[in-house]
Every structure is written in C-alpha cells, then in structure tokens.
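re: ur question from earlier - yeah i can do the single chain one, its not a big deal. heres the input i used so u can compare w yours
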Amino acid sequence: MKQQTNPPRNDVPNLGQYLRSLRDVSGFTLREAEEKSGISNAFISQVESGKVKHPSPAMLYKLANLYGVPYEILMERAGYPVPQNVKEIGNNAPAVFRRLGNITNEEEQALLDYLSFIRNRAKRDGRLK
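and the output i got, formated as tokens:
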C-alpha cells in the first residue's frame, strides 16, 4: 500500500518566493546578490521566479551564506532530504534563530515580510543606507 502524502500547502512560500523575500529583506538587488555570492543574477532570478526549482546544494550553500540563513532550510525548501536532527536549531545558528526557537513556515514568512517593510520604510526615510 502506497503511503499517502500531504498535498503542498498554498500558504507556505516555495523556494523561489522565500529566496526573493530573503533578498528583499537583505536589501540586495539581483546584481548585488550576484557580486556577493558569485552566482549569476540571471540564475538567481530564475530560481526566484520558479523556473529553476531545484538548484544544486552548492548554490543553496552560497545563498544561505549570503542571506545568513541555515543551509538546511534552503535544502529542505528545494526538496532535498534533510535529517530531522539536522533541522533542529543548534548553537551554530545565528542568534536571532536561537532566540526565536522553532517557528512555523508561516511565522517565518510573516517575520521576513515585516522586516522588509521596516527596512524599506527606513530607506525611504533616510535612516538606512
């Protein structure tokens, strides 16, 4: 008997949407992301738009470093298997992840959206360069 899988949830952003949110929060243009990561802006754009759904682990590693997020999160969102014990937030995670603890995908996306809003407002008001 085949094991039933849960259908994808519509409220959880796909990898491309998630990476776009991270880039927006970071304040990088595609060209700046290219310069800092070594990944072509065209490729980053294709991943963000969903044309490339499963970038290589090496690319995901570079993007995780660029955006300061755990590599395992990007691997999981790209559909690669990640052992459950690796998903747990450890001492090597950035301080903000340790303070927040485990959060849902929806909470994470809401936090990214809000941070993007705050940074865009600060840029507009001249408080952030």
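The two ends are 58 Å apart (CA to CA). not sure if urs matches, ping me
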